[in-house]
Amino acid sequence: MDRSKADPVHEDVEMTWHLSRARKPDTQNDSRGVRKGPWKEKKNGSLPEYIEAGKMSDKMDDVQIGAGKFSERSPLGTSAQVEKDYKEPGPAPLFEVSELKSWSFWRAGIAEFIATFLFLYITVGTVMGTSRANFARNCSGVGIQGIAWAFGGMIFVLVYCTAGISGGHINPAVTFGLFLARKVSLPRAFFYIICQCLGAIAGAGVVKGFQKDEYQLYGGGANLVAHGYTKGSGLGAEIIGTFVLVYTVFSATDAKRNARDSHVPVLAPLPIGFAVFLVHLATIPITGTGINPARSLGAAIIYDNSHSWSDHWIFWVGPFIGAALAAAYHMLIIRAVPFNKRT
């Protein structure tokens, strides 16, 4: 073949092939006489076919290297990533006597009490104002959207203020879920729940002290299953609503995300507050939205109505089930690989 009349594209391909062979010499043959490496002998193969075979071999090498970085089989409940580029905090001790002697332990409980007190005061006061406007049939109330904003906005503010002191739980269901995930110890979880309940009772009591007659007339912000819904529907709504909240808490405070995204710790209260807001929009017509046993308990004790007490168990059982499901989902599914490779 006359080189002067050769196809310039073919010449470029041939030159690339020769340079590649010069960079990657391979003269070893296997037992069948087939050359090893990226360049495989192929009968009547053209230059582009040789080049394509080399590219495919390089890609396969990359895949094998990447596949070998992680183990193919991981038992249930173990981390998916073998080599972590972040520091995972260890599990909290179940019980430690020295914790009870530290000021940070008691300070955290006080922070939970004050935060829950402020939460009930603002939110129940908003509910009372809206109920008064609805009773008077005027447009001065904020409506369901305003109530939802009050709950979500206060959670955003209070989590931001107390996250560095107590973690900003402000909810026994959140504390219970974090306890199941070994994020807090048993004494701390128990102490938090007591402080949250006492703060909720105090907050609802202050609202009643400011407007005693209206408080009893408009329901006191107590949670109960609305007419037209069964107790099973109310329980299901509380389970799903609390699942959304606690799942958001786990995701917003995840150590892996905090290490890789520097803005996540700063913005963590925002998605938690939005989760509370959205859940209230969905479940206010069904149960008045509990998803917080302390909030439901405080309003029920101060209101003290037989109807609210008959449904009160829903606002403890539902949130605790939802919190347990969210903790299990995050620890076993999101942060671990419960699948085995099919053989």
As residue ranges, the low-confidence spans are 22-27, 32-53, 62-74, 76-82, 337-343
What is the residue-mean pLDDT, rounded to a whole number? 79
Q: Would you tell me the structural class of the helices and strands?
A: mainly alpha
Q: Can you write the helix and strand succession as a string?
A: HHHHHHHHHHHHHH
What is the radius of gyration?
Answer: 31 Å
CATH 2nd-level architecture of the largest domain: Up-down Bundle
**Count the helices. How many?**
14
Strand content bin:
under 5%
Q: In the CATH hierarchy, what is the superfamily of the largest domain?
A: Glycerol uptake facilitator protein
- What sort of overall outline do the alpha carbons produce when their principal axes are compared? globular
Number of strands: 0
CATH class category of the largest domain? Mainly Alpha
The biggest beta sheet reads: none
Helix amount, in percent? 55-70%
- Tell me the count of domains: 2
CATH topology of the largest domain: the name is Glycerol uptake facilitator protein
Distance between the termini: 53 Å
Briefly summarize what is shown:
The chain is an all-alpha fold and 343 residues long.
Keywords:
disordered C terminus; single chain; Glycerol uptake facilitator protein; mainly alpha; 64% helix; 343 residues; 2 domains
